[in-house]
Amino acid sequence: MAIEPTIPAHEHVYRTLRARVMHGEMEPGAALTLRGIGAEFDVSMTPAREAVRRLVAEGALNLSASGRVSTPELSNDRIEELACLRAILEPELGSRALPRVHPALIERLEKINAVIAEKIVKADATGYVRANLEFHRTLYLRAQSPAMLALAETVWLQSGPTMRSLYSRLPRKQASEKHRSILAALRAGDEPALRVAIRSDVTSGLRMLLA
After folding, report:
1. How far is 53 from 22, CA to CA, in rounded Å?
2. 51 Cβ contact partners less than 8 Å away, ≥ 6 residues apart
3. At residue 189, what are phi and psi to the nearest 5 degrees?
4. Cys staple from 167: which of 60, 125, 138, 146, with CB 3.0 to 4.6 Å?
């Protein structure tokens, strides 16, 4: 895999692996090796080790006492904790974004939601997770709250592989229908309804794993 010439090798490896984990391209508990990462990206062990170190620090990867590197396998307690964090952070981000929402943004969100529906029909788990996060990030960027958004993205990162596993349990069209409630609240400028819709959307999926 060619490395972008404008960024250091370790940064390229980090960004690529981070996106894979966040978008559920890797199953929970999937193992990685520094040798394998180095071979894939055509880099030495040093950039591979630095990228893994950063991802372990973010909770995107686990490092066992024996040195085994793998994607997270979340316990029920951990799933509940991440669901609670999303319930706290994301309604607030939506509320802060609401005053800056405009018709073009709502149209953009509607298009993303149509893509989500297509991914569900096509049984494209990775595409579903990626488009779902794009829907939320596109809205939350309007909040102009970078620290809060960074915290939300860390939660998404830690739950990416689990969200992939969750996909197989989702009722058809559930995600896109919940997003329609968010869109309705945005059109109405209804902040309380928006908070309720976002909280329902971001917690129902993870908590389904606890049922």
Report:
1. 16
2. 10, 11, 13, 14, 17, 37
3. 65, 30
4. 125
Question: Among all chains, which residue has been given the structure tokens 């029920």?
Answer: 76
C-alpha–C-alpha distance, residues 60 and 65, integer Å: 17
- The one-character DSSP state at 6 is T
pTM for the predicted model, two decimal places: 0.87
Tokens of 183: 């869109």
CA distance 26 to 126: 9
128 burial class (0-12, 13-18, 19+ CB within 10 angstroms)? buried
Report how far apart, in Å, the C-alpha atoms of 105 and of each of 132, 142, 196 are: 16, 9, 20
Question: Could you give the CA distance from residue 141 to residue 172 in angstroms, rounded to a whole number?
Answer: 28
Please give the Cα distance from 135 to 170 (Å, whole number): 17
Contact 152, 21 (CB under 8 A): no
pLDDT tens column, 6-25 = 788 889 999 999 999 999 89
Q: For 42-72, what is each residue's pLDDT tens digit?
A: 999 999 999 999 999 999 999 888 888 999 8
